[in-house]
Amino acid sequence: MRIQVINPNTSVDMTRQIGEVAGAAASAGTQVETVCPAHGPESIESHVDETLAGAAVLDRIADGVAAGFDAHVIACFGDPALLAARELARGPVIGIAEAAMHAATLVATRFSIVTSLGRTAIQAEELLLRYGFERHCRRIRAVELPVLHLADEGCSATAQIAEECRRARDEDAIGAIVLGCAGMGAQAAPLSAELGLPVIDGVGVAVHMAEALVGAGLFTSKHGDLAAPPPKRFTGRYAHWSEA
Question: How far, in Å, CA of 181 to CA of 125, rounded?
Answer without folding.
Answer: 14
